[in-house]
Design a protein that fits this description.
single chain; 424 residues; MetI-like fold; Immunoglobulin-like; 2 domains; 4-stranded mixed sheet
């Protein structure tokens, strides 16, 4: 007995210092105020459950528990099965498992950078902006406006021709208000549009400005550049759009297939709005989805390796017997493989539940300060209340007790599962 006690003593001391004492102290501290001097009883718990931030944290934890364990377990199962059917399984395993080698903080920094709203910094929005511009997204020239006394008028942000035009006419647009450096790199010297045919209207849209104040206002030439990508539409007297075109690199455009007229030539307001910048991934609406995606990216490799170990230990003769009896691959998977893997799948699933209930790193690192209240979870809220400006360790301890109560049942289930497997 003395020998057993001597060997167990170090472990018991560590458990007492690192587990038992913090739990007991948190329970005691949750009954006192922020200073730790006045006894409040269950006052901190009442405050916790009437605080909107706590409800937001609980709601987000529910979303995490409902989405992440199921998704990661299914992805791990799919990847584990694929590893047995592809020739480059080792490379596939390395690619999927590699994120597990990255710390949670580093992974959070990676995802925060990749999903920045500025397409010059964020890879996600850079891709979306590239796709948008490739499929019909025209150039945008914010703050551009027509030069005065050039036969055009601004109405509702759009630029209209002053005179009604008939087919075969020319309508030019001399614009100012932007720097020459803001033009696309594809812009070339503006040229005078040729006289259009009897069923068309054409013209030139150019930046009526040259560095140094050179050139004649309202006229093409003297090194002035065309403005490519601008949409030009022809409207009839009722305001209906009859035809449209986009300007070329030299600023010229041509709208064909027109009847006699009259028409108003219009540069829609969309030409002068801010350019498409993608999606606000890290805004309050989508930030939780981005954080969940980062977690799935990291932990799918863990689930894959755990389930693959279960597959490697499986008795394959049962699968072969089912195939010999005429079962297809889906039936073999559903009736043989999945039931035999159920102990591993349950362990992975419950482990993920415990892990996501106490998630902190990714939620704290990825959201910007403006979006953190919308993405907060219980662990982050506990830290914020206790040390992140709240300085109320009493309320923070109450949140830690709540987190313990939520995690404890799943830990007990996992321990019982391990004992059942050991007894078998």
């Amino acid at each position: 007995m003395w020998a057993a006690a001597a060997f167990l003593a170090p472990a018991l001391v560590l458990l007492g210092v690192l587990v038992a004492y913090p739990v007991i102290y948190s329970l005691w501290r949750s009954l006192y105020d922020a200073a730790g001097t006045n006894f409040l009883g269950l006052g901190n718990y009442a405050t916790m459950f009437t605080d909107p931030a706590t409800f937001t944290a609980i709601r987000n934890n529910v979303i995490w528990v409902a989405v992440v364990p199921v998704t990661v377990t299914i992805l791990g199962l799919i990847f584990a099965v694929l590893m047995e059917r592809i020739k480059w399984s080792i490379a596939f395993k390395l690619i999927v498992f590699m994120p597990m080698a990255i710390s949670m903080v580093a992974a959070g920094v990676i995802f925060r950078t990749a999903f920045q709203e500025n397409p010059q910094l964020g890879a996600a929005n850079a891709t979306l902006v590239g796709i948008h511009d490739a499929f019909g997204g025209g150039a945008a020239y914010p703050n551009a406006r027509p030069r005065e006394d050039t036969g055009t008028t601004v109405k509702g942000g759009a630029v209209f021709s002053d005179e009604a035009l008939s087919a075969g006419s020319v309508q030019d647009f001399a614009l100012i208000g932007i720097a020459p450096d803001a033009l696309p790199t594809s812009a070339t010297a503006a040229v005078t549009a040729p006289t259009p045919a009897d069923d068309a209207i054409g013209g030139t849209v150019w930046l009526d400005f040259v560095k140094g104040g050179l050139g004649t206002p309202g006229q093409v030439g003297d090194g002035k550049k065309g403005m490519p990508g601008i949409e030009v539409v022809a409207q009839d007297v009722s305001g209906k759009v009859i035809g449209s075109a986009r300007t070329a690199n030299d600023g010229t455009y041509l709208i064909t297939g027109l009847s006699t007229g009259p028409y108003s030539m219009v540069l829609p307001a969309s030409n002068f709005s801010a350019p498409y910048q993608g999606i606000s991934w890290l805004g309050p609406t989508l930030v939780t989805a981005v954080v969940i995606l980062s977690y799935i990216w990291i932990w799918a490799g863990f689930a894959m390796v755990m389930i693959a170990s279960g597959l490697s230990a499986m008795d394959r003769s049962l699968q072969d017997a089912a195939r010999m009896d005429g079962a297809n691959e889906w039936q073999v998977f559903r009736r043989i493989t999945a039931p035999l893997l159920s102990p591993v799948l349950i362990v992975v699933f419950i482990t993920l539940i415990v892990n996501v209930l106490k998630i902190f790193d990714l939620v704290y690192v990825i959201p910007p300060p403006s979006s953190l209240p919308a993405a907060t979870v219980i662990a982050v809220q506990m830290w914020t209340v206790s040390f992140g400006g709240g300085n109320n360790q009493g309320l923070g301890s109450a949140l830690s007790v709540l987190l313990l109560v939520l995690v404890l049942p799943f830990m007990i289930i996992n321990v019982r599962r391990f004992r059942m497997d050991r007894e078998r």
